Amino acid sequence: MTAAVVAAVWSSATHSFSKFAHGELQLVEGQGVAGDAHCGVTVKHRSRVARDPTQPNLRQVHLIQGELFDELAAQGFGVQPGQLGENITTRGIDLLALPRDTELRIGAAVVLRVTGLRNPCPQIENFETGLLKAVVDKDVNGEVVRKAGVMSVVLAGGVVKPGDAIDVRLPPAPHVRLERV
After folding, report:
1. CA–centroid distance for 39 within its chain
2. From 106's CA, which of 31, 64, 89, 145 has a CA 20 to 30 Å away?
3. Domains, the chain, ranges and CATH?
């Protein structure tokens, strides 16, 4: 089994679809990625702000498993890490299989709590034709499978950089399946 690691880190100070590569990110407890447009205690995603700007920000840090980009490349898509707007690209961890409230301990200090699934938006289709269908699938039972990563909140801040180990700590049972947030 491959050890779970941070493959790359990304952020953007604007509400751009894709994010930009960095050597490291500073995560702020209870807020998210310092300098990122989605950093804050309350929601920052435009559609959510329009509905209720006082909602808690359950989408402070967006993670996507790097294996998704391998899967998409095998289907002929040219999308690369960072282009789907994630803050952290991981390797060696099935993020989508984690239960809600899983803690991800990254590097020396950072602790994230997984809050739910990213709900892929139509902007993904605008990025590359057919991509939305590739990241929203159905399982054998006909249930929707959202593959565009997971969202989390920062329980303990610090620096995250490529190569940092990720230690997965599951919450007490019974586990709650991830839903979109």
Report:
1. 13
2. 145
3. 5-169 (2.40.33.20)
Number of Cβ within a 10 Å radius of residue 171 = 15
The tokens describing 110, both together, are 């950072």
**What does the block give as tokens for 28?**
């702020």
Instruction: Quote the DSSP letter at residue 108.
Output: T
Query: CA-CA-CA-CA torsion for 139, 140, 143, 147, nearest 10 degrees?
Result: 0
Q: Provide the 3-class DSSP secondary structure of residue 77.
A: coil
CB 110 within 8 A of CB 155: no
The CA-CA-CA angle for residues 161, 163, 165, to 5°, reads 95
Cα–Cα distance for residue pair 112/62, rounded to 1 Å: 10
- Do 103 and 152 touch, CB atoms closer than 8 A? no
What distances in angstroms separate CA 60 from CA 30, 63, 74, 168, one per listed residue?
8, 10, 30, 18
Q: Give the confidence band of 121 by pLDDT, cuts at 50, 70, 90.
A: confident
State the sign of the Cα–Cα–Cα–Cα dihedral 37, 58, 124, 104: positive
Least reliable range by pLDDT among 41-45, 83-87, 105-109: 41-45
**pLDDT tens digits, residue range 147-159?**
999 999 999 999 9
Whole-angstrom Cα Rg for the chain: 15
